[in-house]
# Entry
Amino acid sequence: MITLASLSVSSFDWEVPRSARDDMRVCRRSSILLSKHVHLLFDVGLEPMQKETPAYKRIVLKLSGEAMQERGGRDNISLAVVREIAERIKEVRNLGVQVSIVIGGGNIWRGLAASHRGMDRTTADYMGMLATVINALALRSALDQIGVQTRVQTAIDMRNVAEPFILGRAIRHLELGRVVIFAAGTGNPYFSTDTTAALRASEIRADIILKATKVDGVYDRDPKTDAGARRFDQITFSEALAKRLQIMDSTAFSLCMDNKIPIVVFDMNKPSNIRDAVMGRKIGTMVCDELPSDVKIQAT
# Structure
């Protein structure tokens, strides 16, 4: 019902003509209330819009460093690409979802690869942590520019550029609607950013980890080299371990399995995928705890 007017009348009589009364009988879905206050109310038959409700309240979005690059581009960080990622994050944040992000540094530096070329592994890994901070600052800048309050928290103290990681403060930022980016890994060498995502998700009690990748899910074989590779729609942690599927490194995967944190692996290149994942729509591959007995693991 839509209120078109509210008129106040005092002591005069309000007489409705016969023709008007006839019209009111015809307009069965309209009503006129005459009293001290005259309300003209008309039912225009509009159904209330159904507001979509996200499936998850608090998420960890895991981005690779390569997600910051433009395909075929020479820059380590493409500002246009970062802006596009920021817009997708804003869309999810505007749904009322608490968004935290863990971002890799592979577009700038890969510690493991450098160690294989002769560099000390610990030094190489610390350099990789610094690369994640660079990416986090770039993403924070893009989010700030589109009106999304964002905080970067680092596992290595560098107060001039970011906050130190403090669990209570991170959760408070999320509750206030701010995006929190966790950078510098776990602060320790020999741990990947996948492990960081699993650790932070466990600490902040996230509902799910959304792992953005270059492929559209988890396959039984490498789809780049095997045209017959099949994609799983949903799979359990134990099945993934038995099949030796490379979803995350073993440390990260164990953390998710022990703390029962589901993982959705999806293609980052499709703009709507982050929103679709948050809304609980079927995209990519869901990796979770044991499935009900009547649910069968599907591969497509």
